[in-house]
Amino acid sequence: MRIPIYEELVLDNFSPEYLKEKFKESRIGSLPMYTSLYNITDEEKESAITNIEQALKDLHKNPLFPYPYYIVSETPVRGATISVFSSVDELPSHYFKKSKRLKNKELLLLSKVGVLCEKVLNMPLYDNQKVIRDSANDQRNLYKQTKELNFYEEVAFALQEKQRD
Question: Is the pLDDT of residue 27 over 90?
């Protein structure tokens, strides 16, 4: 398996049948991917995104897991569940890496990621999306609370040190 780096999925047509066929051939979910909508008019963009979302749902491919699928469009699109960015440079920078030769330990970790990716692809993600979102929110809240607690402990420790002096 190779390092997950962004790959562009070029779509010539936005009909549901074409999209389903193209998504079957592509590696959506196995790599972070994006599609540019610069070549279509603003009126067609909403229907194109709706068709993309429906084709992904019909193929049981989630645009968020295990690797994201993004839309790049110069104009914002409302009501899309897929993340829309105005340029390729605005995509999350985590997957902008140069391909390089990996060390043995990195190859081992990448193979584990590949196995976990296959497990995630086999899960019914659309059914579990609310559970995943709730779990992520709970983890964010726990992080914020422990971060605040750590701050208060450091302040209390600093005050105790000053009282001793």
Answer: no
Helices (H), the chain: 16-25, 42-58, 104-121, 125-164
Give the burial class of 91: count Cβ atoms within 10 A of its Cβ; 0-12 exposed, 13-18 middle, 19 or more buried: middle
Q: Taking Cα atoms as reference points, which of 12, 3, 70 lies closest to residue 30?
A: 3
> Running DSSP on this structure, what letter comes out for residue 122?
T
Q: Which two tokens stand for residue 146?
A: 């422990």
Are 75 and 36 spatial neighbours (Cβ–Cβ below 8 Å)? Answer: no
**What is the CB neighbour count within 10 angstroms for residue 18?**
14
- Picking from 76, 89, 81, 72, the residue whose alpha carbon sits closest to that of residue 34 is 72
Rounded to whole angstroms, the Cα distance separating 42 from 78 reads 12
Cis preceding linkage at 32, omega within 30: no
Q: What DSSP designation does 102 have?
A: P
In degrees, rounded to 5, the angle at the alpha carbon of residue 58 between the alpha carbons of residues 56 and 62 is 40
pLDDT of 159: 92
Cβ proximity of 17 and 51 under 8 Å: no
The pLDDT confidence band at residue 54, using thresholds 50, 70 and 90, is: very high
